[in-house]
Model the fold of this input.
Amino acid sequence: MATVPKYALIEEFIKTNIQNGTFKKNEPIYTERKLCEVFKVTRMTVRQAINNLVSEGYLYRQKGSGTYVSDGKVTKPSSGLTSFTEDILSSGMTPRSKVLSLEIIEATERIAAKLDIPIGESVYQMERIRFADDEAWGLETVFRPVHFTPGIRKEDLAGSMFEDLEKRGLKIAYSDQTIEAVLAYKTTAEHLNIAEDEPILLIKSTTYLDNDVPLQYTKSFYRGDRYKFSYRAIRR
Done:
């Protein structure tokens, strides 16, 4: 009979204590040191178990504080184009944004290609941290040609960007997205209050108007322990 790996036993122990209420939502679990003592294993084994449970959404890490029981990931559905604000509100939480920067730059070759504009055209570069119930969940950088929304201010970016755009008469139709798992760089980790090299989601999207003209290109980093995507795959 195959021997169950120690990290799997630790995972099962933590899951059981979450299910029976010993480890409560948004409260810390045992420290790594205590788990090492209980199971008589190395810290590497404990971290493997914790990393697996973080990836599965059972736990999340708070930088400099410890590991906590998650209250569940927000699921981003594949059908329909919804904003972060709408997703968070539908989950019963309160969204907000912290605007880090708003500046006008010249479009690089890469940005120009994404937005189908000439290289050097003026575009807004907007960077925000997205919060759910005052916890940082995402870091996004948005590039948009200036002519779509001339004269915007930082305060215009504090809420839902889609809502602001629609109030200006711009009709958003669809978005092309790619999603991949990456490790958090130091600056990104600091903004999201997670450990450096923590697994996160990188989402790149180009949003189009109803006339198929690219409106903006967005590069976002979301915490993998807080956000997940749900897709229906249809065999044709």
The first strand starts at residue 59 and ends at 62. Residues 84 and 202 are 14 Å apart (CA to CA). The two ends are 43 Å apart (CA to CA). The chain has a mean pLDDT of 87.
